[in-house]
Amino acid sequence: MSRSHRHARRSIVSGFTLIEIVLVLSLVGSLLAGTIGLMSIASESTKQAKERRLSRSEIRRFADDVRRDVAEADEVTVEGEVMTISNGTPPTTIIYRIEPGQIRRTKQTQSDDTSDQESRDRYLVGPMFNIQTALKDDNRIVQWTLTQIERPEDPLKIMAARRGSR
């Protein structure tokens, strides 16, 4: 055998076969797809956790505000998805309205100089809740029930009582 023929044969043997290349590429592709899938799941999980944390914070803020408003109320009425709170001095009306994914609060205060003041707020509880309002104990207690759609067996109840009626 000549020297050039041996050298040509050695270079052919030292390469990779098509089967080896296809096998390595398929393994690398599978690993890459799995990694991207895990990153997507982790990202979605982080997003959902952030939304739940924001929702809990908004519910706490709402509970504090509604308890304060009801405690100071002269009269509370509930009609469907609207709760109206009336106070006497100065004449003030606070309206809580249930809307998809949020609760809106509007406060209207009448001043002696005939200029009305209005403030608005909203509580972004999220679309994962069904919200109901009910009056109890001769309209002295307001009960807000927030039920998670995915956990209906464990509703969150917020109770607010008018001052002097506890």
Notes on the protein architecture:
The chain is α+β, with helices and mostly antiparallel strands. The chain has a domain at 40-77 and 125-161. It is 39% helix and 38% strand. It has two helices and eight strands; from the N terminus they run H-H-E-E-E-E-E-E-E-E. The protein has helices at residues 3-13, 18-71; strands spanning 75-79, 82-87, 92-99, 102-110, 116-123, 129-136, 141-148, 151-161. The strands form two sheets. The chain has a five-stranded antiparallel β-sheet with strand order 1-2-3-4-5, covered by helices on one side. A hairpin with a 2-residue loop joins strand 1 (75-79) and strand 2 (82-87). It is elongated, with a radius of gyration of 32 Å. The mean pLDDT is 86. This is Type II secretion system protein. The chain crosses the membrane at residues 12-42. It comes from Neorhodopirellula pilleata. Keywords: Membrane, Transmembrane, Transmembrane helix. InterPro entries: N_methyl_site.
Key traits:
166 residues; alpha+beta; 5-stranded antiparallel β-sheet; 3-stranded antiparallel β-sheet; 2 helices; 8 strands; 39% helix; 38% strand; elongated; transmembrane helix; Type II secretion system protein; N_methyl_site; transmembrane; membrane
Write a concise synopsis of the structure shown:
InterPro entries: N_methyl_site (IPR012902). It is built from two helices and eight strands, in the order H-H-E-E-E-E-E-E-E-E.
Tell the overall outline.
elongated
Describe the largest sheet. Answer: 5 strands, antiparallel
**Which spans of ≥5 residues are poorly predicted at pLDDT below 50?**
none
The residue fraction in helices comes out at 25-40%
Radius of gyration, in angstroms, nearest whole number: 32 Å
Strand neighbour order, sheet with most strands: 1-2-3-4-5
Number of strands: 8
Q: DSSP helix count?
A: 2
Judged by helices, strands and strand pairing, the structural class is alpha+beta
Helix and strand sequence: HHEEEEEEEE
Which whole number gives the mean pLDDT?
A: 86
What percent of residues are in strands?
Answer: 35-45%
Q: Compute the separation of the termini in Å.
A: 108 Å
